[in-house]
TrEMBL record:
This is histidine kinase. PANTHER family: NITRATE/NITRITE SENSOR PROTEIN NARX-RELATED, NITRATE_NITRITE SENSOR PROTEIN NARQ. Residues 292-385 form the Histidine kinase/HSP90-like ATPase domain. The chain crosses the membrane at residues 45-61, 68-97, 103-122, 134-152. Keywords: ATP-binding, Kinase, Membrane, Nucleotide-binding, Phosphoprotein, Transferase, Transmembrane, Transmembrane helix, Two-component regulatory system. InterPro entries: DUF7134, HATPase_C_sf, HATPase_dom, Sensor_HK_TwoCompSys, Sig_transdc_His_kin_sub3_dim/P. It is an enzyme of class 2 (transferase). It comes from Actinomadura fibrosa. GO terms for molecular function: kinase activity. Its EC number is 2.7.13.3.
């Protein structure tokens, strides 16, 4: 609400400046109504209006308004009209030019203010001491106003630089996230290569067996054809995902077999040897899953335990649970570490990778600090293509 109000005010400069010039006009009103009759109340009113009304555009046209107010003050001094409350407008213009224009124009505004101080000291005081006192006092006021404007100009420039830096960092962070997603897709493409190669190899072997057995053992040939059919469907589903994965500048080495659900025990044992107590449990009857799904489950557990090792603290412990519920496997990794107290730098991409993997198979990942302390990662992945 405050931000929107501030943005509205920044877009209505004349209206806001009129609001701040109104008190000066009110202060000048008694002088216009009950001023010295010898001077002429009409003159006082005219000069007051000429000094105050231009302030409505002081931020829209700062140099022009300074020129107008300065000339009106000079004419006022020349014809001998006493200083008015509206003459404060000169100081306001000096501040505005120093705060909103270049340093060269700011120095020009300082010169105009000092000239006004000199004219005031020469025109109105009586006696040398009074003239020096008036000049020194007015010089101090003008210089203080100019320094305040210069300070505001420097502060605004600093705030603009901070905002630009924040915007640049935000763009860089978005770029890093996109690069991390691209790298994760490339790694997934390498891993799915093994899955597809395995399925195609099975199809080739079964096809060769069926061709040899079709004349001598029709039943075995039929089994081989059924295996080819199921394996082909699985490979086709994996290939459809692979077509959506970009794989650029891939300089990885030789491919190696990728882990699955059966290797989770080895992963838990490895993490335990690193010093993190881990409990592993399986709830429900394990369902048959494609190698790509098993790999996604393995990597999600691996990344969650890696984050626990890095951030949970020296005395943390973790629980890993695989829960099979119909056509969905739920992966839950919970630790009792520092949770929300862990400072983040915004550069980690592990959660991005986990969500990418789960989304490939129609699943989802929820990762957040726990209310009582610690961190929780819950992933839900369909076990079959039909379920996804």
């Amino acid at each position: 609400m405050v931000g929107r109000w501030w943005e509205w005010m920044r877009g209505k400069k004349p209206l806001v400046d009129a609001f701040f010039a109104a008190p000066l006009l009110l202060v000048s009103l008694p002088g216009m109504l009950y001023g010295d009759p010898q001077v002429g109340r009409e003159k006082l009113a005219i000069f007051t209006i000429l000094l105050v009304v231009p302030l409505i555009w002081r931020r829209t046209y700062p140099r022009t308004v300074l020129t107008v107010v300065g000339l009106v003050s000079a004419v006022q001094c020349a014809i001998g009209i006493i200083p008015l409350p509206g003459n404060i407008g000169v100081l306001t213009c000096v501040y505005t030019v120093a705060a909103g224009c270049t340093l060269r124009w700011g120095l020009g505004a300082l010169a105009v203010g000092e000239l006004g101080a000199l004219l005031m000291a020469l025109r109105y005081p009586e006696g040398g001491d009074d003239m020096r006192t008036t000049f020194v006092t007015m010089t101090a006021v003008v210089a203080g106003t100019w320094i305040l404007g210069l300070h505001m100009r420097t502060r605004r420039a600093y705030l603009r630089s901070v905002e630009e830096r924040a915007a640049r960092l935000e763009r860089e962070r978005d770029t890093e996230v996109r690069m991390a997603m691209a790298a994760e897709r490339a790694r997934i493409a390498r891993e799915l290569h093994d899955v597809i190669a395995h399925n195609v190899s099975v199809i080739v072997v079964q096809a060769d067996g069926a061709s040899y057995a079709i004349d001598s053992d029709v039943g075995r040939a039929r089994q081989a054809l059924e295996a080819i059919s199921s394996t082909g469907r699985l490979a086709l589903a994996e290939m459809r995902r692979l077509l959506g994965v970009l794989r650029e500048n891939d300089d990885a080495g030789a491919y190696a077999p990728q882990p699955g659900v059966s290797q989770l025990e080895d992963l838990v044992t490895q993490v335990r040897t690193s010093g993190l107590p881990v409990e592993f449990a399986v709830d429900g009857t394990p369902a048959a899953m494609s190698e790509g799904r098993q790999l996604a489950v393995f990597r999600i557990v691996q990344e969650a335990l890696t984050n626990t090792l890095r951030h949970a603290g020296p005395k943390a412990a973790a629980d890993v649970c695989l829960r099979y519920r119909g056509d969905v496997v739920e992966v839950r990794v919970v630790d009792d570490g520092r949770g929300a107290a862990v400072p983040g730098d915004g550069r980690g991409h592990g959660l991005v990778g986990m969500r990418e993997r789960a989304a490939m198979y129609g699943g989802s990942v929820r990762a957040a600090p726990r209310p009582g302390g610690g961190f929780e990662v819950v992933a839900s992945i369909p076990t079959r293509e039909e379920a996804a």
